[in-house]
Amino acid sequence: MTYDDFSSPAPSVPQSGPPVLAVSALNQAVARVLERTFPLVWVSGEISNFTRAASGHWYFTLKDDSAQVRAVMFKGRAQHAGFSPREGDKVEVRTLVTLYAPRGDYQLNVEAIRRAGVGNLYEAFLRLKEKLENEGLFDPDRKRPLPVFPRCVGIVTSPQAAALHDILTALRRRAPHVRVILYPTPVQGEGAGAKIAHAIRTASQRAECDVLLVGRGGGSMEDLWAFNDEAVARAIAACPVPVISGVGHETDFTIADFAADLRAPTPTAAAELCAMPRAEWLAQLQNHAADLTRALKRHLAERGQTVDWMSRRLASPASYIAHERVKLNALQARLEHATRTPVTKARYQLQHLQTRLHNRLPDTRAARLLLSDRQRRIGNAAALMTQRRRQLLTAQTAQLELLNPQRTLERGYAIVTDAKGKVLRAPSELQPRSNVTLRLAEGSADVGIASVQPMLD
Q1: Per DSSP, what are the bridge partners of residue 151?
Q2: d(Cα 235, Cα 242) in Å, to the nearest integer?
């Protein structure tokens, strides 16, 4: 504890003497000391003098056999308590030790409250919830939708439970046509969890209902503990039909609520969720019937108008055939006219073109006469030229005949060639003791040269 804890903003003596504190400053300092010395702690005791103020705050005394202490729980915290304490309840509160400065009363500022002994149960509840959640038992993807038209509803609860009466009353009021099957089981006490799980498995094996309601009325956490049993949660998850959990009141949550396909805040709400009121179905059916009747009448009216319109368009077959015959004759006339007109026009064009062609053809009679004269003249000239060429050829043939070496040889001359076939013309080309060939008119002869005498001038 320091001097600051007891300091006062307005001392009534000179600063050289000991400090004099105002009462409010003293109480505030003591409150700070208490709050620092005692952080949030859990305190157990019995509720006494409980008062709920109009502001929503709770005021009560927490006591045991030897002592008591005032306590307050403000509205913001009290609305999350989950239950309303009563005189004599054994509770545990999580509190801050402080001092109410205006009156100088030492008190507890409560932040959370639970029934005595619930702490261990709540820890067990959290451990089981975390375990099953990690296994996927609470996965939203495995939640199944409720049937729209359930014909049979199964109920897992105690035959003596008030919740059963509430459920049956709600079902008779909303859906009296739905059949109900009760799977009786204790919902509280030793071994209740295993018996509830057995009842759920029995309903699963029989497969008699379309939806299963599991629940009971409200109570303390110990009263509802059977629905926090692991066997119950696994039986609900394995059930082949959708399961609605309606355990306790709106603020009560159990493991069965998380495992079920749908949680209802109360058993009565569970009954209301599983079946829509018959009156609503009948109202919907009446609305649908009215809509269907109106649609059918509208359809018939439209078809009647269509029939009237088609009947006005429908004519007698004879008049229709006559009308079509007139149309056919008109089309035939148009076709004949369309085919005759082009042929006539083409004929006229052909005659016109023939006339133009005849007028433009040249006069070939004079040209033919000129051509005949020139052909005659050309023929005469060609004959005369041929005759002259023939005479010239005869003369040249005679001259050629005169110059023919064969004729010279026939007159006794000879042609001298050496061994290579070269014609020898001068004696100087002859060598003694060489051979030459003499070509005569009727053959040839090889002769040897004995000597050569040149011609003397």
Answers
A1: none
A2: 12
At 329, list the tokens. Answer: 């004759």
Cα separation of 82 and 455, whole Å?
Answer: 175
Triad 229, 232, 237: Cα angle to 5°: 130
**Cα–Cα distance for residue pair 187/214, rounded to 1 Å:** 10
Q: What pLDDT tens digit does each residue of the chain (457 aa) get?
A: 444 554 444 444 445 567 887 888 887 888 788 777 777 888 989 888 999 998 889 999 999 888 999 999 999 888 888 778 888 888 888 888 888 888 888 889 899 888 776 556 777 888 888 899 899 988 988 888 988 888 899 999 999 888 898 899 988 888 888 899 999 999 988 888 999 999 999 999 999 999 999 988 877 777 888 898 999 999 999 999 999 998 887 777 889 999 999 998 888 888 888 877 677 777 788 888 888 988 898 888 888 888 878 877 776 777 778 888 888 889 888 888 888 888 888 888 888 888 888 888 777 788 888 888 889 999 899 999 999 999 999 998 888 877 778 777 777 788 888 878 888 788 877 888 888 888 887 888 888 888 887 776 5
Residues 115 and 83: beta-carbon distance below 8 Å = yes
What distance in Å separates the CA atoms of residue 100 and residue 30, rounded to the nearest whole number?
10
- Cut 0.70: pTM above it: no
Long-range contacts of 7-12 (CB under 8 A, 24+ apart): none
Among the listed residues 96, 56, 46, the one whose alpha carbon sits nearest the alpha carbon of residue 77: 56
CA separation for the pair 202, 196 (Å, rounded): 10
Using CB atoms within 10 Å of the CB of residue 398, give its burial: 0 to 12 exposed, 13 to 18 middle, 19+ buried.
exposed
Q: Encode 360-392: b = buried (16+ Cβ within 10 Å), e = exposed.
A: eeeeeeeeeeeeeeeeeeeeeeeeeeeeeeeee
Q: Is 153 helix (H, G, I), strand (E, B) or coil?
A: strand
- Are 260 and 137 contacting, i.e. CB atoms less than 8 angstroms apart? no
**In the chain, what's the furthest Cα-to-Cα distance?**
199
Q: How far apart are CA 393 and CA 387, in angstroms?
A: 10
**In 3D, which of 413, 420, 419 has the Cα closest to residue 435?**
419
344/303 Cα distance (integer angstroms): 56
